[in-house]
């Protein structure tokens, strides 16, 4: 997987239920809206990744900045996403990105 160089850090993360978006505020003051239904949310089973059930608004509202601002974490659904990838528009593995018609 490609490495996305960006040293900006998240200072806050909020879930917006009305639009099902993750709002990230970075240390440079910029704000980014990420559609959570475009994120590849999986669990590891044996030697494969399997999509989890569509998270509820309640589960998604419990999002935290993690790793000193390098990631966001949803503890109820055990999902972690790197901030540099999110702001680069990378929401999952290449096959996932192709399936949701997003080119990187």
- State the CATH topology: NE0471 N-terminal domain-like
Tally of extended strands?
8
- The Cα radius of gyration reads 13 Å
CATH class: Alpha Beta
Structural commentary:
The protein has 3 helices and 8 strands. It has 104 residues and is mostly beta strands. 14% of the residues lie in helices and 37% in strands. A 3-stranded antiparallel beta sheet has the order 1-2-3. Strands 6-7-8 form a 3-stranded antiparallel beta sheet. Strands 4-5 form a two-stranded antiparallel sheet.
Short description:
The protein is mainly beta.
Which labels suit this protein?
37% strand, 3 helices, 3-stranded antiparallel sheet, NE0471 N-terminal domain-like, mainly beta
Topology:
Blueprint: E1 10-16, E2 21-26, E3 31-35, E4 42-45, E5 48-51, H1 57-60, E6 63-66, E7 71-74, E8 79-82, H2 83-87, H3 94-99
Antiparallel strand pairs: 1-2, 2-3, 4-5, 6-7, 7-8
